[in-house]
Amino acid sequence: MTQTLHIVGGGMAGSEAAWQAAQAGIQVVIHEMRPKVKTFAHHTEKLGEMVCSNSFRSDDDEQNAVGLLHWEMRAADSLVMASADRNRLPAGGALAVDREGFSEHITQILRNHPNILISNEEITDLPSEGQWIFATGPLTSDALGAAIRAETGTDRLAFFDAIAPIVYADSIDMSVAWEQSRYDKGETEAERRAYLNCPMTRDQYEAFIDALLAAEKTEFHEGETATYFDGCLPIEVMAERGRETLRHGPMKPIGLTNAHDPETKPYAVVQLRRDNALGTLYNIVGFQTKMKYGAQTAVFKTIPGLENASFARLGGIHRNTFLNSPTLLDAQMRLRSRPNIRFAGQVTGVEGYVESAAMGLIAGRMAAAELQGLPLPTVPQDSAHGALIHHISGGAEAKTFQPMNVNFGLFRPLDGVRGGRRGRRDRYKAYTDRAKAAWQGWLGQQGLDGHAAE
After folding, report:
1. Partner of 91 for a Cys bridge, out of 80, 96, 365, 386, CB 3.0 to 4.6 A?
2. Is 10 known as a binding-site position?
3. For 16-48, what is each residue's pLDDT tens digit?
C-alpha cells in the first residue's frame, strides 16, 4: 500500500500532476482552496481554469519549441493536452481552446477518477510529513507565500502578469474588420480565417498611442515593487518604450491583406482571436493592460471596427509569485530543505500554460515513482521537458532568474548544424528530431501503456 500524494492547487500543473500520479496507481488528494477561498482572477470553481489567454501558442512540433512540448506531452498521455485537443478552436497554426469546455473536461475526468479525491480547503503551511506537490501558480495565497518565505529564507520574487480583454463577437463591425490568419496559416479554411483583423491608418495609430499613453492606469500599493515578464507586457508599457513598439509587436500589419481594401496596406492591425467554440467571444491578442476599466473601454473603442464593442471581460493585472528555483529546487523538483515537498508549474519560474502543465506532468511522475519505490530515469536534457527542468534547477543564473517560456535557446547546441537565420529551419528540425528520440526513449524506459484521457 503506497502513501497518499497531496497536491496543492488545481490549475494546469496541479491537474496534470494529479492525473499522471493517479494513472500510475497512486492515491491522490487535490487541495484546491476555491470556492471557499477565491481569487480575483478566477471566475469559476473548475479545475484547470484558464485565467488569461485561451491559446497554447504554436502547435508546430518541428519548428517551434512550444509545439515540441505539446508533442512530448501528448506522447506522455497528458490530460491537459487531451482536453485541449478535445476543445480545440480554429486558430491558424496555434492551438487555441474553448476555455469553458476545456476546464469542464479536466474537472470531470479528475472528479471521476477512482484514485483522486478533491478537497476544498486552503493549505497555509509546508507540511513536514507526507509527499506533497505545491502547484499554486501565480496566485499563491498570502498565508502560503509567507510560509514559503519563512522556509526558504528569501523574499519571494514577483512580476505583474496582465490579462487581455474579451469582446462579444456580435459587437464587432465586420464591414471594417476581416477574417484572416497571418500569412493565411492553417490547414483548413476555418484555421486560415481564425482571427479578426482591425486595420489602422497612420493617423489612427498615432491617435491610439496618444490615448493609450494618456489613459488612467492602475496604481500599485505603496512599497509594492516588481518587474514585468516580457511575454506579458501591458500594451501601455510597450508604448512607453517607443511609439513604434506596438506596430512591430502585437499590432504588426505584415502577412495580412485587408479584404475590404486589398490595395491599401494597413499601417497597423489589431488582431482578435476566437475565445470559445460558439464563436461568440474574441480576445484582443497581445492587449494585456493595467489601464483602469473606464479608460480601457474608451481607448479600445477608438480601434476601427470596435467603436461599438461590448466587453465580456476587461483587462486586468495580478501579482505573479515564483521561486528562485535554481537555488531552492533539486533536479527532482524537490525543495532542498524539505525533500518531501516538490513544486510544479509557474511557481517554479516557468511561464505559460503549457510549460506549467509540463512541470506538473514531470512532478507527478517523479512523486509517483518515489512513492512506489521505483527508479525514474533522469529526464533527458535534450527533450523540451528536460531543457526546462535543467533551466529552473540550476541551468539559469540565480542572481538574474526570471520566468521563462520554453525556447530553443534552452537546448544544448547541435554539432554540424548551420547557425544564423539561414540555417534556422534545419537547426530547429534537428532540435525537435533529437528531442523526440530522447523523449520516446525516456517514456519507453518506464514501460508506459499510454492510455488516453477520454
Report:
1. 96
2. yes
3. 999 999 999 999 999 998 766 666 556 677 998
